[in-house]
Design brief:
Length: 614
């Protein structure tokens, strides 16, 4: 996600800020910016879209002097990636500048009130709302910067890590956090700020990790002071950082893939935030409001995507057909674009893509658009080519995915498809209100159940060495779990280079059963649902041929252990959400097998994170 850097001391801030931004590049971002207060008292803000190098180039002929500054790399959440929306943001008077990570959920209400008081906005961000609010309070109530920040933070709902400077007081940075990390580094007569310790560790190993709800008052020549939003002084817990850079970037995990697997409960909360109400019984998608007619008049939905996103689409098809009773087809974008498909005016085409840059998916969109379809995008990278080419859409908001094997994007895509299907079903009256509410409620419980599923990590790590010998593996599932069998197999192939196939469990006897012997690990998703008994029969068919079965079962299951060599137990959920839970052990399995085989998990051979060529 976004990255924060700050410096106040006796050295020039700009080189430290730029080096810090480069350190944060691993997080992924779409724009960057810096603000310094010069010796002459000017607050200079410079911003550029794209890489930090673009910012450096832009700053080439600018006044970058000053020994106090803040800097930011942005991953867009509100407003497209552009220099205009990049941070830092000035206040109206240009006296203040702010950088911010997180999301201010009630920004629209605050913005409306500020606009009613004559404040004009220069960006589409929630962040600018915060700096304007701080200044508004400062002027209206004649308060100091610190007091105004305290008052403002009482009014905002959401997550934030912020740093704010005032050109009239070039010896101070005010920083605060809630649910978004922030670290202050303490040097000799200088302080550093970072969204993690990576921009700081070159200069000092003494850091203070701000706690939720705390504000840091960073003043040159004084001790660091940490207070609560209510103004109570907090004990300073100075820690010594003793970790290498790679570790910080990966949040202490050995690989980005593992970090991203473990991030999923949080990612799904972000994905649902502001879309499912606090009571957990109603879903609203802004696309559904803005394009109500187009989406409701769909006679057919066609999903186009590639790879993992295509697997999410297969789950989406089942959700859309069963909840909304709209016929839905799922197409490989690469096939769709070249096979002269029938596209009708009342078709809605849903394009799913994590990167938002996949060339085949983009071409499929252009083709469908030319033929008059309405295009809905489900993407992660804000402002990428695909969201720009679609008529509307919904971002999955799971943050940058760095591991090449897609994990959190998959569950984010399935979550958005679930919310979309629920919105359409409610509008079309295709499910009873009680069932609608039950499904929405269950969706809000998924992050907690994912936490539980993540507890299988140790068991799976122990199991993994058993499978490293395998040259082939089979993944079986039925119903909603069939696409997950495909996804489990794809994960294993990608990072461990073991050949694997996913199959609908009952289809196995029409061919692949011939492959089964005691050397062939078979992973079966056998969670409790309508087809549970049938899946048990499929497991018995495998066992009868000497196959080695590892089954994913629902807690409380007593039957399957009789037939399986290993069982992995998962929390119960509705059938349609089982892939969200069961994807976790399958991701972990692929991960640990690949690690045991000594493979480069985050950068598997021959693969690229963004496939911009056909
Ligand atoms: C698998 C994987 C790929 C992508 C595919 C589509 O782990 O990452 O199969 O899912 O290349 O990419 P996006 O979703 O960016 O369009």
């Amino acid at each position: 996600m976004c990255g924060i850097v700050g410096y106040i001391g006796t050295k020039q801030a700009y080189p430290i800020l730029i080096k810090g931004l480069k350190r944060l590049e691993y997080r992924g971002y779409d724009s960057a910016g810096v603000a310094m207060i010069s010796a002459g008292g000017d607050l200079n803000v410079y911003k550029a879209k794209g890489k930090v190098d673009n910012l450096i180039e832009y700053c080439g002929d600018k006044d970058v002097s000053g020994s106090i500054g803040i800097a930011h790399t942005r991953w867009a959440t509100h407003g497209e990636p552009s220099a205009r929306n990049a941070h830092p943001h000035y206040s109206r008077s240009h006296n203040l500048a702010i950088i911010h990570n997180g999301i201010i959920e009630n920004y629209a209400d605050i913005k409306t009130k500020l606009q009613a008081n004559g404040i004009e906005f220069r960006s589409d961000t929630d962040t600018e709302v915060l700096v304007q609010l701080v200044e508004y309070i400062m002027v209206k109530k004649n308060l100091s910067l610190l007091e105004s920040v305290q008052v403002a933070l009482h009014q905002v709902v959401g997550a934030y890590a912020i740093a704010i400077v005032d050109k009239r007081d070039p010896c101070q940075i005010i920083a605060a956090r809630k649910q978004s990390p922030l670290v202050v580094g303490i040097g000799e007569n200088e302080f550093f700020l970072g969204s993690d310790a990576s921009p700081i560790i070159d200069y000092t190993d003494k850091v203070v990790y701000l706690e939720d709800g705390n504000i840091a008052v960073i003043r040159l020549g004084e001790e660091l002071k940490v207070i609560s939003v209510l103004g109570e002084e907090q004990d300073l817990k100075v820690k010594t950082v003793d970790i290498d850079l790679g570790q910080i970037e990966k949040g202490g995990y050995k690989h980005f893939m593992l970090k991203e697997i473990f991030e999923q409960p949080e990612c799904l909360k972000n994905c649902m935030r502001g879309r499912i109400n606090v009571e957990g019984n109603h879903v609203t998608l802004s696309a559904m409001i803005d394009y109500h007619r187009q989406l409701l008049s769909a006679k057919r939905i066609v999903i186009v995507a590639c790879g993992t996103s295509w697997h999410a689409g297969l789950i989406g098809k089942q959700l859309i057909e069963s909840l909304c009773r709209i016929p839905c087809e799922v197409e490989y974008a690469s096939e769709f674009r070249y096979r002269n498909p029938v596209v009708m005016k009342d078709d809605v085409v849903i394009a799913i893509s994590q990167s938002g840059e996949t060339a085949d998916t983009l071409a499929a969109i252009h083709l469908a658009k030319e033929q008059g379809a309405f295009i809905y995008g489900i993407c992660n990278a804000i402002g990428a080519s695909i969201p720009r080419a679609t008529d509307t859409g919904t971002y999955i908001h799971v943050g940058p995915e760095i591991g090449v094997a897609s994990t959190k994007a998959f569950t984010g895509q399935v979550t958005v498809l679930s919310m979309l299907a629920l919105c359409l079903a409610a509008e079309r009256n295709t499910i009873p209100p009680e069932l609608y509410q039950q499904i929405v409620k269950e969706l809000t419980l998924i992050p907690g159940k994912m936490e539980q599923a993540l507890k299988t990590n140790g068991q799976i790590e122990n199991l993994a060495p058993i499978f490293t010998y395998a040259r082939n593996c089979l993944y079986l599932g039925r119903g909603y779990n069939y696409p997950l069998a495909l996804e489990g197999a794809l994960k294993l192939k990608e990072i461990s280079y073991i050949h694997a196939e996913g199959y609908p469990a009952a289809e196995m006897k029409h061919g692949p059963i011939a492959l089964i012997d005691s050397e062939m690990p078979v992973f079966v998703i056998a969670t409790r649902d309508r087809l549970y008994e049938k899946v048990i029969s499929n497991i018995q068919e495998v066992r009868a041929r000497g196959g080695r079965v590892t089954a994913l079962v629902t807690e409380g299951d007593t039957q399957i252990q009789k037939f399986a060599d290993h069982i992995i137990t998962l929390p119960d959920t509705l059938e349609c959400f089982q892939p969200l839970i069961a994807s976790i052990p399958l991701q972990l399995l692929a991960y640990h097998i690949a690690v045991c085989k000594g493979k480069d998990v985050d950068r598997p051979r021959n693969l690229a994170k963004s496939v911009t060529v056909e």
